[in-house]
Amino acid sequence: MKKKNHKHGKRNLIEEIKIIVSNQNILKKEFLTTDEASEYLRLSKSCLHKMTSKEEIPFYKPGGKKIYFKRSELDQWVYNGKVKSTQDEEHELTDYLGRTNKNQRI
Fold it and tell me: What is the pTM of this model?
């Protein structure tokens, strides 16, 4: 029984190492396949395909077939999706009101 658990633990470790190596390889690449982009963004491939068909995410389709994603553009897409906190909104409002009040005094 202990031998089976040891083998099972060894397989899990090997799988974890494969995942780590795969993730490191993705971080080195400039362009990602759909599989890699799905893994990178932690989105299902079907979700990613729907987003490309609706042009909601930047992608490349050279020759009109296989889809590629530029990793830096995926990062920017994530950053652009930031939802502002109420604190962010309050700071922007305070800054805006401060600027408009100064302009009105001039």
Answer: 0.64
